[in-house]
Amino acid sequence: MSFLRSFFPDAASSFAGKVDALYLFMLLVSGLVALGLFVAIGVFAVRYRAGSKADRSGASIGSWPLEITWSVLPMVIFIGFFVWGAHVFLTWHEPPPGAIHVYVVGKQWMWKIQHPEGRREINEMHVPVGTPVVVTMTSEDVIHDLFVPAFRVKKDVLPGRYSRIWFRATKVGRFHMFCSQYCGTDHASMGGWVYAMAPADYQNWLSGGTAGQTMAQAGETLFSRYNCITCHFKGGRGPLLQGVAGSTVRLQGDGTVTADEDYLRESILRPQAKVVAGFDPVMPTFQGQLKETDVLQLIAYIESLGGDRATQGPP
């Protein structure tokens, strides 16, 4: 039984129940269809075997009602599978409001986790029970894959871009976290644990050691260290950053882009890829100078900046 439980771990998230229900229903229907086929094959093979005395008179070469039934009924069932699966898929991609955020960087061969409040972890992720958690992930080297079987969530972690998953833990406990994409020599040892904690215990843990800085504060330090402040505030040669996160940015050539995390990351590491309208492409690249954790901190700082975006424009 312990061997079977390793393939079917206990569900520990709100999403896991939906995945399990769909999977078990598909398994049940497929099993019943397979059983019916094998029973029919067995009965016909025995009854109408060569040399049997079964009555073969009046044999029919076709039946429209039978053919319509075995064509339409499976189609309806499979369309039901599709609709149900699409609903589960869309639910998995749309986190509910009120979610907290955790940032993960995959690296041969470890998981580096950052919380916006400042806590950092290696191969461990602490989350509260009952609260949606959005995990934003990227890789510093090769393709990894974050997999938490008990939560039924699994997503490729890719270099050069952000991917996201979300879950809501439903019970307190410690749950295995794996890399399920072969990523090199020590791939098998690239794992860790997700600790689902009672909300009060999680808050106590979260405030237990922030190293004096939140992610946004650490990003502000980097912002000053790399002299970004000389261009991206009033009087500078670059676009203003107050209120830019989440807004629509006008680009050279009359295009537009939403200033989400992917766009902000690209603008830091490849600033010539999408140049803001009204500005010259003079920003230097920070590719190779910043770690992925640094980029996440800078993005957190930019997202923390307020201001009225509608009043901003080229200086």
Helix and strand arrangement:
Elements: H1 2-7, H2 14-47, H3 64-93, E1 100-107, E2 110-114, E3 120-122, E4 124-128, E5 133-139, E6 144-148, E7 153-157, E8 163-167, E9 173-179, E10 191-197, H4 199-206, H5 215-225, E11 248-250, E12 256-258, H6 261-269, H7 292-304
Parallel strand pairs: 1-5, 4-10
Antiparallel strand pairs: 1-2, 2-3, 5-8, 6-7, 6-9, 9-10, 11-12
Helix pairs in contact: 2-3, 5-7
Structure description:
This protein is of the alpha+beta class and 315 residues long. The chain folds into two domains: 1-44 and 95-212, Cupredoxins -  blue copper proteins (Immunoglobulin-like), CATH 2.60.40; 215-311, Cytochrome Bc1 Complex, Chain D, domain 2. The chain contains seven helices and twelve strands. It has helices at 2-7, 14-47, 64-93, 199-206, 215-225, 261-269, 292-304, and strands at 100-107, 110-114, 120-122, 124-128, 133-139, 144-148, 153-157, 163-167, 173-179, 191-197, 248-250, 256-258. The strands form three sheets. The chain has a five-stranded mixed sheet with strand order 3-2-1-5-8, covered by helices on one side. It has a five-stranded mixed sheet with strand order 4-10-9-6-7. The termini are far apart.
Question: Keywords, please?
Answer:
disordered C terminus, alpha+beta, five-stranded mixed sheet, 2 domains, Cytochrome Bc1 Complex, Chain D, domain 2, 7 helices, 20% strand, single chain, 315 residues, Immunoglobulin-like
| Helix percent band | 25-40%
For the secondary structure, the number of strands is 12
| Shape summary | elongated
What's the CATH topology label of the largest domain? Immunoglobulin-like
Tally of DSSP helical segments: 7
Derived structural class: alpha+beta
The average pLDDT score comes to 83
Distance between the termini: 69 Å
Largest sheet: number of strands, sense, barrel closure = 5 strands, mixed
CATH superfamily of the largest domain: Cupredoxins -  blue copper proteins
- For the largest beta sheet, what order do the strands appear in spatially? 3-2-1-5-8
CATH class term of the largest domain: Mainly Beta
In N-to-C order, the SSE pattern is HHHEEEEEEEEEEHHEEHH
Strand content: 15-25%
Instruction: Assign the CATH architecture of the largest domain.
Output: Sandwich
Low-confidence spans: pLDDT under 50, at least 5 residues?
A: 1-5, 308-315
